[in-house]
Design a protein that fits this description.
Blueprint: H1 3-7, H2 11-17, H3 22-27, H4 31-39
Amino acid sequence: MCIIELIGYSEKNKDTYCTECIIYKRTGKCEYLKYLESTVSVDLGSDHVQEISIDECGF
């Protein structure tokens, strides 16, 4: 079992634990990570999402 399955996915956990994974080190790929990252959704109500006005788009 992958350590990320046990401790939970986060960017910090990915950086900490996946760099030690022999498969990830050799191939640079991880199907489980790919699956997890594809299920992460963007919270549009978050303060981190910046709104772009029409003027900034050149319209």
